[in-house]
Amino acid sequence: MPRRIRDAAIVGIAEYPKRKAPGVSALQIKADSASRALADAGLSWKDVDAIYDAGEAGVMSGLSISEYFNIKPDVIDTTMVGGSSYEYHAIHAGGAISQGRAKVALLTYGSTAHSNMLAIGAGGMSRGVSPAENMESPWGSTLIANYAMVAHRHMFDYGTTSEQLAEIAVATRAHAMRNPDAVQAMTDLEFMDIRELSIEDVTNSRIIADPLHLLECCMISDGGGAVVIASADVARDTPKDPVWILGGGEATKYPENGGDITVSAGAQSGPTAFGEAGVTPSDIDIAMIYDSFSITVLTILEDLGFCKKGEGGAWVEGGRLRFDNANGPALNTDGGGLSSNHPGMRGIFLLIEATRQLRGESLAQVEGAQLAVAHGNGGSLGSRHSAGTVILGRD
Amino acid sequence: MADVKRPLPKLADPDTGPFWEATKKHELRYQTCDACSGIVFFPRSHCTHCLGQKLSWRISKGDGTIYTYSVVRKNYHPYFAKRAPYAVAWIDLDEGFRMMSNIVGVEDPIREIKVGQRVRVEWEDQEELSLPMFRPI
């Protein structure tokens, strides 16, 4: 794939500050975030000519979201691949802008998963609607067990330990403690110990589905956000420095006879994205990787090529992923899904915090950060899932 | 409150319904392609290896290996909540297909189940079908 030229950039971002928002609708969260992201970009509703929506706030959202915002876009994209939808939206928006079909794209997300008491993690996960799911509905596998089965096989094949997996939760909590919205989130969601964690804190927390402990699992919050992506000529006049979309990759993975459950769809989307951007994982300062669970991050770090398959456990040891450790990329510097927010599909926050870092606005800022990867994982890591990898860079 | 039942697959599903119908006879079925002999599982009406559209049903001996597993400690579903801790697993059947199931017949699933363990099918009879479970051997 040829190198991508710098013709589309993130120019506006907003994150909905609350993680517990009773009485507010998902659509209201989307609109609140959209208006603040447009203001951040120095733009307004009338400037938007492309809309991206995962349909999380209503059916046939390609029709309804434009009306709710009162915009008349020329490009409408309702790609829905779970939590990675927003990485796909960013890639698609970059493509539409490259083709000259749009100049200002708006991505929004809103969810009231917490207030609706959605039992995502330990609820029955199979809706039994597809033939594949009709084979999996009777066994009582939860979402957490689905991911836990990846962890068990990773441990079996490579000797990975719970202590190594805990490093991921420890790093993201350290970042969350610097983020007042994340601290408030943990307070509102009644976390027991709101402080930096030790490895032992994680491995001593109760097991939800072997081998995953409570503190290796993301929270279930309300929340949302918005991202504005614009063409280079629009980006020239926006108030904040543009964050360029340098590369993108998409992929799916599903259970196969004889397949390797420890390899995610990221092994396919990653090389595509890095190839288009013309950079390698060792160039990356910021790794925004969907942390639904500890094992999600570990496998994706390997699949993106930060280290070899199976070496992730040893690679993350010693706090390598902390923002103040220069030996590796900083992981989820907003606190991630583990310690800041997870309203069900947190892919948009990966783009938002990566943008903060490349603007120099993060609360766990990596000095001089130049390149970030945002990698969303949608669906379930241990069975069918999607991957969206986006490489972002500053001028 | 009436006892909540285990969620069961749909017998009416055009692809996987015949698999579940056969479980009444305690047959663990998979498919092979008449053209390329490739194994298809989960069941479908087309070959996923070649462009063949004619598949034949085969009956597995029901012996396999635990590819990976998890012991579920918490499930909000009332049927499973009462049964936790219990084990879910992906099983590699000797014929070459992989399916999800439960591991049964162990006193302490947290300590007794291992990746790579050999298992054999056994059946839990329901009203309209039987569920293939696996027991370590």
Description:
The complex is a heterodimer of chains A (395) and B (137). Chain A has 395 residues and is an alpha/beta fold. Chain A has a single domain (8-116, 220-393), classed as Peroxisomal Thiolase, Chain A, domain 1, CATH 3.40.47.10. Chain A has helices spanning 26-40, 61-69, 85-98, 131-134, 143-158, 162-176, 180-188, 199-204, 232-235, 266-277, 294-304, 312-315, 336-339, 347-359, and strands at 8-15, 50-52, 75-77, 104-111, 207-209, 212-213, 223-231, 243-253, 286-289, 330-331, 371-379, 385-393. In chain A, α6 (162-176) packs across α11 and α10 packs across α11 (294-304). The longest helix of chain A is centred in the middle third of the chain and has 16 residues, at 143-158. Chain A starts with 7 loop residues before the first strand and ends with a strand. In chain A, 63% of the residues are buried. Chain B has helices at 17-22, 78-81, 109-112, and strands spanning 29-33, 39-40, 55-59, 63-72, 86-93, 98-103, 118-125, 130-136. In chain B, the strands form 2 sheets. A 5-stranded antiparallel sheet of chain B has the order 6-5-4-7-8, with no helix packed on it. In chain B, strands 2-1-3 form a 3-stranded antiparallel sheet, with no helix packed on it. In chain B, a hairpin with a 5-residue loop joins β1 and β2 (39-40). The mean pLDDT of chain B is 96. The A-B interface holds A 119, 122-124, 126, 128, 131-132, 134-142, 144-146, 148-150, 152-153, 155-156, 206-212, 255-259, 261, 382 and B 6-10, 13-16, 19-20, 39, 41-44, 67-77, 79-80, 83, 86, 88-90, 92, 96-102, 110, 115-116, 131.
